[in-house]
Amino acid sequence: MNLKIALLQLLPSDSLEKQFQIGKAACEKAKAMDADIALFPEMWSDGYAIPQDETAVKDLSIAADNDFIQKFGRLAAKLQMAIGITFLERHDPKPLNSMILFDRSGKEILHYSKVHTCAFDLEKMLSPGEDFFVADLDLGRGTVKVGSMICFDREFPESARILMLKGAEVILAPNACPMEINRLSALRTRAYENMLAIATCNYPDGQPDCNGHSTVFDGVAWLRDEPGSRDMCILEAPGKEGIYVADIDLDLLREYRANEVMGDKYRHPEKYKSLYTFIAFH
What we know:
By secondary structure, the protein is α/β, with parallel strands linked by helices. The chain is built from seven helices and twelve strands. The strands form two sheets. It has a six-stranded mixed beta sheet with strand order 5-4-3-2-1-12. It has a six-stranded mixed beta sheet with strand order 6-7-8-9-10-11, covered by helices on one side. It has one domain (2-281): Carbon-nitrogen hydrolase (Nitrilase/N-carbamoyl-D-aminoacid amidohydrolase, 4-Layer Sandwich), CATH 3.60.110. It is 28% helix and 24% strand. Strand 4 (96-102) and strand 5 (108-113) form a beta hairpin.
């Protein structure tokens, strides 16, 4: 079984309605490209705009039941395609940086808020999320376990590790930053050490502090019957705006996970007591 993910590497506009229209057209194109999932870049509702004023950022935020979000749920059902929509979520005391994944029937199956907010920068105006979640995504021909992490989450090994331990096979990773060798290496490493696929959707050139280069790492570092290692990067988009589709071989990934040595196989949690003690007293 294969999984096709469309990375919607789009330039944002200046209103919620325009954002929906741009997003709707992109989702329709993704469906025409046979995608199973369409993924938006980080905080699509406002193009990753985070006013540095409490009243302004609250006014820009929207609730999860806002019609902007729910229209993407209805669109997912119409297209029979999962959609990962991102938004600045209304929340007290501060808004959240969130993603909701609708399945192909339009049902909300995953609601994740960025845990590792960039509190050293613009995201000091936001609240962090509380946990990482995994959901079963029905593809109509089988299911796949998906989770999410957002942008800066990738810099913390715990993000992907928790998702792997909860059963994730694929991580959806909305993004809004320059994707250079070190950030790409972090994504590659998270995929490698957890034996899972990571699909990252960034804004293209033309969006401030972004440069495209959305990626998919499929998590399969080598094949038993072939010499040497293989490149886990099955897609790296250019800088320009576009819809980029990657085809993940889930059968290959599952066989690899069943037989190889990373992930959970040789961990020794009972020997990590110093880490737990540090967390308890930090």
